[in-house]
Amino acid sequence: MKRVRKLGVRNIGITDLPPLGCTPDLTIIDSYRACNDSVNNMVDLHNAVLSAAVRELNEGFTDSKFLVLGVNQAFMSVINSKGEGKFKEVLKPCCAALDQQFSCSNTDSDGKKLYSLCSDRRSSFYWDSVHPTQVGWAAVAPQIRDVVLHLAKF
User: Fold this and answer.
1) InterPro entries, per this entry (predicted)?
2) Which segments of the chain are extended strands (E)?
3) How many CB atoms lie within 10 A of CB 146?
4) Angle (deg, nearest 10), helices 71-85 and 134-152
5) What is residue 145's predicted lDDT score, i.e. its pLDDT?
6) Are strands 11-15 and 115-117 parallel, antiparallel or unpaired?
7) Phi and psi of 67, rounded to 5°?
8) What residues have CB less than 8 Å from 139, skipping those under 6 apart?
9) Cβ within 8 Å of residue 18, ≥6 positions away
10) Are 92 and 33 in contact (CB under 8 A)?
11) Is 13 in contact with 148 (CB distance < 8 Å)?
């Protein structure tokens, strides 16, 4: 972050980690019913250290502003509310591999799909094992919008 500042950037937004324990990659273990609290606890520790580092940077520079974009909190808000009813199964991906050795979009040598797709991608928060859908990001974005607008004012 200091190197970016040295390049002349004065307003810097840093995303914290999203709740990695809620990705389908990890929630598959519990049939997509619950987040992995152990992984999310590690993410929380990382994000706390990041926030402390950003506070320290802000104390050291009066002509710059560093802000943490709260992706974690925004994701958890959407996940806990199921996007206020937009998402049927918020922890289940729309595109899922048929076997653990494959990933979404894999095909065999004959072109046969080695994955399945949900019937309505707009009802899924996650596209694949880790990436939100466009609708998922649209549900998260308004929650970090105010921080981005605040950063733009400096």
Assistant:
1) GDSL (IPR001087), SGNH_hydro_sf (IPR036514)
2) 11-15, 65-69, 95-97, 115-117
3) 10
4) 140
5) 86
6) unpaired
7) -130, 145
8) 78, 83, 86, 87, 125
9) 43, 71, 72, 75
10) no
11) yes
| Cβ-based neighbour number of residue 2 at 10 Å | 11
C-beta atoms surrounding 150 within 10 Å = 13
Q: How far is CA 53 from CA 9, 34, 101, in A?
A: 18, 31, 39
Give the sign of the dihedral formed by CA 18, CA 23, CA 142, CA 7: positive
pLDDT in tens, 109-134: 898 998 899 999 899 999 999 999 99
Backbone φ and ψ of 97, nearest 5°: -70, 145
82 by Cβ neighbours in 10 Å (0-12 / 13-18 / 19+) ranks as middle
pLDDT digits (tens, 9 = 90+) for 70-101: 999 999 999 999 988 899 889 999 998 887 77
